[in-house]
From TrEMBL:
<keyword id="KW-0028">Amino-acid biosynthesis</keyword>
<keyword id="KW-0198">Cysteine biosynthesis</keyword>
<dbReference type="InterPro" id="IPR045304">
    <property type="entry name" value="LbH_SAT"/>
</dbReference>
<dbReference type="GO" id="GO:0009001">
    <property type="term" value="F:serine O-acetyltransferase activity"/>
</dbReference>
<dbReference type="GO" id="GO:0005737">
    <property type="term" value="C:cytoplasm"/>
</dbReference>
<dbReference type="InterPro" id="IPR011004">
    <property type="entry name" value="Trimer_LpxA-like_sf"/>
</dbReference>
<protein>
    <recommendedName>
        <fullName>Serine acetyltransferase</fullName>
        <ecNumber>2.3.1.30</ecNumber>
    </recommendedName>
</protein>
<comment type="pathway">
    <text>Amino-acid biosynthesis; L-cysteine biosynthesis; L-cysteine from L-serine: step 1/2.</text>
</comment>
<dbReference type="GO" id="GO:0006535">
    <property type="term" value="P:cysteine biosynthetic process from serine"/>
</dbReference>
<dbReference type="InterPro" id="IPR053376">
    <property type="entry name" value="Serine_acetyltransferase"/>
</dbReference>
<keyword id="KW-0963">Cytoplasm</keyword>
<dbReference type="Pfam" id="PF00132">
    <property type="entry name" value="Hexapep"/>
</dbReference>
<comment type="similarity">
    <text>Belongs to the transferase hexapeptide repeat family.</text>
</comment>
<dbReference type="InterPro" id="IPR001451">
    <property type="entry name" value="Hexapep"/>
</dbReference>
<keyword id="KW-0808">Transferase</keyword>
<keyword id="KW-0677">Repeat</keyword>
<keyword id="KW-0012">Acyltransferase</keyword>
Length: 180
């Protein structure tokens, strides 16, 4: 299973990034892919309740890649982080399958209590560069969050979110799919 998931991650990167020339290049040089692999190890330790070890792995991966994914987050398959640097994913974040984040994205919390405090992203969501999605909001499947948007409210499936604070609109047939 670990090798099939690794092959799937490499195939996802090659599908999502037109600059990827080979699987070997992705395996050796893609920090977003490396961050996901590190997250999987840290998450497994977290599930086993080895919290200190999980956080230590997470922080080491952050040091290496510039991507901070809390080991308590739940992430689906074929998740891709393009360019990676500066991405932060909080402890109670939930990310569906086929989600893509660009660099500088924050999936952050707004309260300091032990409850659901980070976003939930549905399947096929794309989040643009520098966007911040804050609090226990839900972004519906196949939505697009524009670059630098600050999202503080829920959005239904098939939404386009842009601005500060973000406004929610329905995607039209003319809205690009951004590799969805």
């Amino acid at each position: 299973m670990p090798f099939s998931r690794t092959r799937e991650d490499i195939a996802t990167a090659r599908h999502r990034d037109p600059a990827a020339r080979s699987g070997l290049e992705v395996w050796l040089t893609y920090s977003g892919v490396h961050a996901v692999w590190g997250y999987r190890l840290a998450h497994r330790l977290w599930v086993w309740r080895w919290y200190l070890a999980a956080r230590s792995v997470s922080q080491f991966v952050r040091f290496l890649t510039g991507v901070e994914i809390h080991p308590g987050a739940v992430i689906g398959r074929r998740f891709f982080i393009d360019h990676g640097m500066g991405v932060v994913i909080g402890e109670t974040a939930e990310i569906g399958d086929d989600v893509m984040l660009y660099h500088g994205v924050t999936l952050g919390g707004t309260v300091g209590v032990r409850e659901k405090r980070h976003p939930t992203l549905g399947d096929g969501v794309v989040v643009g560069t520098g966007a911040s999605i804050l609090g226990p909001v839900t972004i519906g499947a196949h939505s697009v969050v524009g670059a630098q948007a600050v999202v503080l409210v829920d959005a239904p499936e098939g939404s386009l979110l842009t601005g500060i604070p973000a406004t929610v609109r329905s995607r039209t047939p003319h809205t690009p799919d951004f590799y969805i």
